[in-house]
Amino acid sequence: MIIKKRFILIMIIFSLLISTSLIGCDKKEANNNTIKNESVNNENNSNAK
């Protein structure tokens, strides 16, 4: 049950991200934003270690 709930949550988050990127500005800007977010996440992960 816990795994199913997590999977559903992940799918909802993914669909929201996809819809916002499609609805939002140009694809290039959306890609730049995702790249920035990934780099920030990587920095946070390295700091956490």
From TrEMBL:
Protein name: Lipoprotein
